[in-house]
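Example S7 (structure tokens).
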């Protein structure tokens, strides 16, 4: 069998750098295994905003053994994610001092044996005391994979809990990143059809 060159389908050009400007002033980096290599994922955000941006770089040094066709998707609206719709319970809530959209609550019990929780990290950026109550400005990262495709599917939820001092409101927003092979996407499609 002759060696095959690696082919990675992504949404950027490898030699193109990401210019962040003044909007982003914090970052968090992950290195996650995928097939015979890794994805280096940068999560960029601002300490006073709930907006999140991803930078993804692949590291597949053993390129002569596998041909990889992966698809990378980002979801600002988690309602459009088949993974979220199928496997996760999300929480929405609004009141005068709280604005939550698509906060991760739990894995749906009927799918607890079908997906793995591979990452659960939270960083507190600041502590705010208001009317004798303590609030934390945080970024939380949750990682999941399909058990049957654990090395071919990555789903990251990045939750930003931001305290807006002008509005005196806690704003919670969640953004997702999905990296998947065609085979794992076919499996996700089967799960999605099955749950409907």
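Recovered sequence:
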């Amino acid at each position: 069998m002759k060696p095959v060159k690696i082919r990675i389908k992504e949404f950027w050009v490898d030699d193109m750098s990401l210019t962040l400007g003044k909007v982003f002033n914090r970052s968090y980096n992950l290195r996650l295994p995928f097939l015979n290599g890794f994805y280096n994922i940068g999560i960029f955000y601002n300490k006073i905003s709930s907006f999140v941006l991803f930078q993804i770089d692949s590291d597949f040094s053993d390129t002569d053994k596998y041909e990889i066709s992966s698809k990378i998707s980002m979801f600002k609206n988690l309602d459009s994610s088949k993974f979220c719709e199928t496997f996760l319970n999300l929480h929405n809530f609004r009141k005068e001092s709280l604005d939550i959209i698509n906060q991760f609550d739990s894995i749906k019990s009927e799918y607890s044996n079908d997906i793995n929780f591979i990452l659960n990290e939270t960083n507190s950026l600041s502590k705010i005391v208001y009317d004798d109550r303590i609030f934390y400005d945080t970024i939380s990262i949750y990682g999941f994979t399909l058990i049957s495709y654990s090395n071919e599917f990555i789903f990251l939820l990045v939750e930003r809990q931001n305290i807006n001092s002008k509005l005196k409101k806690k704003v919670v927003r969640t953004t997702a990143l999905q990296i998947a092979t065609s085979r794992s996407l076919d499996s996700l499609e089967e799960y999605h059809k099955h749950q409907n």
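Notes on this example. The first helix runs from residue 82 to 87.
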